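hey can u check if this looks right to u? its 43 residues, i copy pasted from the old doc so theres a chance i mangled smth
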Amino acid sequence: MLRLNIRNARNLGIKKMLVTCDETNKASEQTIISNGGIFEKKY
């Protein structure tokens, strides 16, 4: 689902997206990273 949303955003001309997840949700973290996400910061 994330990959599809990234593709749709690019088709709309959106160059950057903010994707977040709970710091304990390792599966979501891995999904974000595997789709080109870059860790920015932890609150």
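The chain has one domain: 2-34.
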